[in-house]
Amino acid sequence: MPTSRSLKVAALSAAILAPIGVLLLNSPVGLAGTAVDIAPPAVDETAADKPATETAVLAGGCFWGVQGVFQHVDGVTKAVSGYAGGAQSTAHYERVEDGDTGHAETVQITYDPHRITYGKLLQIYFSVAHDPTELNRQGPDDGTQYRSAIFVQTPEQQKIAAAYIDQLGKSGAFSRPIVTKLEPFTGFYPAEAYHQDFLAHNPHYPYIAINDLPKVHALQHEFAPLYREEPVLVNAATD
Questions:
Q1: 67 in a domain, yes or no?
Q2: Is 211 in contact with 65 (CB distance < 8 Å)?
Q3: What stretches in the chain show pLDDT beneath 50?
Q4: With contact defined as beta carbons under 8 Å apart, do 194 and 6 qualify?
Q5: Which of 43, 100, 124, 224 is at a distance of 20 to 30 A from 217, taking alpha carbons?
Q6: Domains identified in the chain, total number
Q7: What's the rounded Cα separation, in Å, for the pair 118 and 111?
Q8: pLDDT for 23
């Protein structure tokens, strides 16, 4: 059975959804109400003695939307769509779509810890980038490749992420339990070139307009001091 997002979108009829996408794109407020109002993490990193750059590796459904959100976050210097959780040999879109590779669609976020912290990135991740209460799915996409997962790379990241999930679970901010898993980082493999910067280049694409543009609007509304109008693109040098 086909699982490609392109087939799913086609089945919904672009002729019907495209005008809705234009309406969302031109809305001054968008769907900022899709954000969940959550407190920042009580446990976080500090900028002291940090290198100039660090990375966060986050999975939250379709990487188009997650990448698109973090490309608009000030302090992020790069956000790359890709795959994590499985072997390098299966880190290809058509194989990952089968749902049996162990991979999740993932975004590797490179950021300046002197401008934004790992914990603040997690706050955006839980608040607007995806729904952490959906198990092995996200919106219209179903399968373990769309799971909610944080691939921790250091003991500090493990500590911050675990503490924040516990904090959010006790806060009652979400109506259902958080299902986000902390997984060991075993490697990140960039996705095919046509997936990079997909939201930035295809804002009228029905899937993007319905599922992902509201996330960017929510970021702008809920995290205004951190919002950057111009996204930092993977292929900026050639755009």
A1: yes
A2: yes
A3: 1-3, 6-33, 237-239
A4: no
A5: 43
A6: 1
A7: 9
A8: 41
pLDDT value of position 48:
82
- Flag whether the pTM goes above 0.90: no
Assigned token pair, 213: 């543009």
Residue 146 tokens read as 């769309």
Phi-psi sector, 137: left (phi>0), alpha (psi -120 to 50), beta: beta
Task: Check: CB of residue 201 under 8 Å from CB of residue 111.
Answer: no
Contact (CB, 8 A) for 58 and 105: no
Q: Is-contact 136 144, C-beta < 8 A?
A: yes
The position carrying tokens 């959100």 is 69
- Which among 120, 96, 101, 93 is positioned nearest to 109, based on CA atoms? 120
Q: Which of 62, 80, 104, 232 is catalytic?
A: 62
In a domain, 177, yes or no: yes
62 is catalytic: yes
Which domain does 25 fall in, by range? 5-33+51-234
Instruction: Using CB atoms within 10 Å of the CB of residue 203, give its burial: 0 to 12 exposed, 13 to 18 middle, 19+ buried.
Output: middle
Answer yes or no: is 45 within a domain.
no
